[in-house]
Specification:
single chain; alpha/beta; Rossmann fold; globular
Length: about 210
């Protein structure tokens, strides 16, 4: 019996592996306007994709008035966030997430439309400028530029004075199919997305 006890004491106990999601909180925020009429518009592709992730996981968002957003937990400590404010007010939501949920900029992945990227393409990025995007501009002004981004291409209309109408316009059927194919390509790497392994994602997707 003494020999058995001694053997057990000397035996190394293997710890149960911890998934990457539980290391830190992760907030996946989709930029978009809140009214239904903006659904399926270029400017709302980030919001629409976050809602699609929730739907794919059979999750329901919970409206959090004090956070100015709707939120759900897709994996332990991984939160999907849909702002209840307009695009150019997105920084308010990030500030409230920081205040109430201790969300640091580097823990936030922002999904947004990007006119400088061709439709059907996407790029992961850490930090950087706003590229003229009012949602990114507001986020940068409020929490700084260290948040992570998934830039979803919606292409450029060709002329600067057409940009506003372009991003508020709806996708054509062919464009919708390109985005559906792109979404499948991106979400295939959801483990790396949920653990914010941006450098690996850049090599896989960009």
């Amino acid at each position: 019996m003494e020999l058995l006890t001694k053997a057990l004491k000397n035996q190394k106990i293997k710890k149960k592996p911890q998934n990457n999601y539980s290391v830190q909180k992760v907030f996946i925020l989709g930029i978009g306007n809140p009214e239904e009429k903006y659904n399926n518009t270029r400017h709302n592709i980030g919001k629409d994709w976050v809602e699609k992730i929730a739907k794919d996981h059979e999750l329901t968002f919970v409206k959090k008035s004090k956070l100015k957003c709707s939120i759900c937990e897709v994996e332990p400590h991984v939160y999907l966030v849909v702002p209840d404010v307009y695009v150019n007010e997105t920084g308010r939501v990030a500030l409230l997430l920081k205040r109430y949920l201790n969300a640091k900029p580097e823990q936030i992945l922002v999904l947004h439309d990007d006119i400088d990227t061709q439709i059907g393409e996407a790029k992961f990025k850490c930090g950087g400028g706003d590229g003229g995007h009012n949602g990114l501009k507001d986020l940068s002004n409020v929490i700084g530029k260290d948040f992570k981004r998934l830039k979803i291409g919606v292409s450029h209309p060709g002329r600067k004075n057409e940009v506003t109408n372009w991003v508020l316009g709806k996708f054509k059927p062919a464009e919708t199919q390109l985005l559906e194919d792109l979404y499948k390509k991106i979400i295939a790497h959801k483990d790396k997305i949920f653990s914010l392994e941006i450098e690996k994602l850049q090599n896989l997707v960009n």
